[in-house]
Amino acid sequence: MNPVARTAQRLQVLVIALLALFFAFPVLSMLAEFARPQDIVDTLTESSLRGVWWFTLWQAVASTAFTLAVGLPFTWAISRHTFHFSRILTALITIPFFMPAVVVATGIKAILPAAGIPAILWAHIVFNVAIVVRIVGPQWLLLDKAMEDTAADLGAGRVRTFLYVVVPHIRESLRNAAAIIFLYCFTSFAVIAILGDISHRTIESEIFTQAIRLGDTRTATSLAVVQAVVVLLVLRWGNPASREPRTATQTIQMLTTSRTPFGLALFFSVAVPALVVVSPLVAVIIRSFTLNGQFSLRGYQWLFDGSTEAVGVNIPQTLMTSLFFAAICAVLAPIAALIISVTQHRSSIVAGITALPLVVSAVTFGLGLIIAFDQSPVNWRSQWWLIPVVHSVLALPLAVRAIRPALDAIPEDLSDAAASL
Question: How many Cβ atoms sit within 10 Å of the Cβ of residue 76?
Fold first, then answer.
């Protein structure tokens, strides 16, 4: 083991301790307070909840399928070709993933006022295409183009080449991306709350309704437990333990990709996903300059002229607070993810632990924080630093999945050579 890996292995104890204190402790506190075996059984047999379970499942499957259908052509375009504005387009595709759901949902509702299932599926596509690009893209980029050329020389068409050459190469990353997309759609809350109605409820929105609106915390906790089991199984399916080492030849192939003429297939592979993802954002921008059907800057003036202070909102102060919290999270999460990624391939247990924040319902986790950190000696509910630390914990699984492909792309012989210097 090289010195970097040894240091990371020691530091990962701190990361696990962070997860234990700010994730496991709140969740276990919530379960100890409200979880009962009989209540869990009732959530599976209750007739009024069967429709919720069914809608949650099929919309998550449909959203995952549509997201892959939109995201894979774009991923192919940026992974196998180099063209002008490719980085800008990739950034535009990625932006919605980091935006509040209310922004994207508002844009989609401006285009589809009736909302409903088409709007819900569209919103999930907009949010999750970035996952396909960021997880599958690095793996696809490492595929030696000579393998595809050889298949073509042997008479294989594009479909056969994709199925028998490309898919085996990107299978693990594709499975991982599909699992993450499914769990985000399966646990969707804000999109459903804005674009859905009483007949379109997911388990996550039902957890919120039971816990907050009806005050039935036991039913909410039981729903969260069953949901967590489903998500955990999906994550397990999407995160196989084996990883193939990357070779120096693959890395060179990645670095020597030539500029590609912008043909019809490449155009549609880029234009359609970009239109699907960017149009809701454009709709939001247009509406921000509109008041009573006419062009107006009044909305922006209201943000900074003190008009919002009457309802207790100081926009400049809110922006600064958000930037401050985001900066802390942007430092903590990547550092923790790097520590875990360096040593993760040696321990499937650590890999499972770091994925846990993706498993638990956000509503359940929030209630757990209120319960766990409202008593001595950890009475931290009112502490400002709790918010960025908790966000860092929640961001850790995605940070690991973003950093690890880059580390996997480094040939082992180069790492060994660097360690020996």
Answer: 20
CA distance to 125, 177, 322, 346, 402, per residue, from 130 (Å):
9, 10, 22, 28, 11
Do 143 and 93 belong to one domain? Answer: yes
Do you know the residue count of the chain? 421
Instruction: Report how far apart the first and last C-alpha atoms of the chain are (Å, whole number).
Output: 14
Scanning 142-243, the segments in alpha helix (DSSP H) are: 145-153, 158-161, 167-186, 190-195, 203-208, 217-238
Are the CB atoms for 40 and 203 separated by under 8 Å?
Answer: no
- Rounded CA Rg of the chain: 23
Same domain, 28 and 48: no
Q: Report pTM.
A: 0.80
> The domain containing residue 189 runs over which residues?
36-288
Domain finish residue from 231, 254, 288: 288
Domain count, the chain: 2
Cα 309 vs. chain centroid, distance in angstroms? 34
Same domain assignment for residues 385 and 259: no
Question: What's the CA gap between 401 and 337, in Å, rounded?
Answer: 8
Q: Which two tokens stand for residue 409?
A: 């792309």
pLDDT in tens, 6-62: 777 778 888 889 999 999 999 888 888 888 888 888 888 888 888 899 999 999 999
